[in-house]
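Field: sequence (string)
Field: structure_tokens (string)

Example rows 1 and 2, in order.
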Amino acid sequence: MRVITIFYSYSGITRGIAEKIQEACGGDLVEVKAVTPYSTITAYSLGCYRAMKGECDEIEPASIDVSASDSIVIGTPVWAFRATPAINGAVEALTGCEGKTAVLFATCGGMAKDTLPFLAEALAAKDVRIAGEYVFDKNDVGDSDTIDALIAAVKFAGGSD
């Protein structure tokens, strides 16, 4: 099983979960960064506005080849009930993803609402099948049972028990 975990993390919370997935499942860990980073002010003003509109940031890495992976994990914070513009950019940057399986997760302080369904729709347009969607609110981030369920889904999606 070869897993690639792709994530954007503004505050470090999403990164922490992505690292736990990588520790448990191995594979590559790809942190996506906006070419123009957000400050505290622009994250809430410009970033949330762009997230609501489903816009993409210009990102590094500019292209993400997942052809050598069996499955994909994508993690994003929730901004204005949507995936971040950096993760929208990451989905656009995916190559070699046709026919792959993905597990999605989002971190949020409150509610994720349509974050993962919109992300799943964008991936489906690239012929990626969604095997699971997980939301970690502020109470779930440190919950080992919820994290273990996510890791089990990643292993199952990659064909490992």
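Row 2 begins here:
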Amino acid sequence: MEWINLFRALVTFGFGALVGSFLNVCITRLPQEDSKERSILWPRSHCDHCQKQLPWVDLIPLVSTILLLGRCRFCKAKISFEYFIVELVTAFLAVWTFDQFGFRPQGFAYFLFVASLVVITAIDIHHRIIPDVISLGGTLLGFLLSLHFLDINYTESLLGILSGGGFLLLLAWTYFKFTSREGMGGGDIKLAAMIGAFLGYKSILLVLFLSSILGSVWGLFMILLKKENLRAALPFGPFLAGAALITLFYGELILYFLGYS
């Protein structure tokens, strides 16, 4: 039985790494999809420096980066280590997700959610945007999946959308009303709605609470490092995504210790 579990974990890890490789394409190209010459499906993967198409052996997740020492086979230009990190993180998250939810429709539904959070985090860090195709599309997908494939029903999903997006919308409006400055982007509001669609109204409240803690800790860290432009250094999307992952895997345990289970 232990060998079977190990084999299953290795297969899941490999599957997650493959998905992570595709997520790298999404992370790189989604912010540029206004160009008709570029999409997540076209053109084929190539070196950003010499523009040569990569052979299939150079597209093997994790392994190719190690064998090529993080450089292009043709021009020897350095390849961003972020690609390796995304593949590795997605691989571990796949093992984590399927171990908890099983190899059934529910597990794949939640892995779609997890993969979306990985893409959102990377794009928000680099570009300070959260593409609507993921946040709004994910909100609709989460609601539809709640009909059969999630731990919540469609009513809880709908209330999660309204409470998640609605709370941040109210917060953003209040901040703007008193300061005449935008304190939270629309992308964060849509992301909160998407998270609410997958996790429900009870869990979204925990997500908002945890994300504020994560953001505060990071902000304190930046202050200690004496970063001058703190607001520019703090996109909120990654904190929402991180809090959503914590809630997905440990939400029930946290609520139990808080006395809300």
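free_text_note (row 2): The mean pLDDT is 89.
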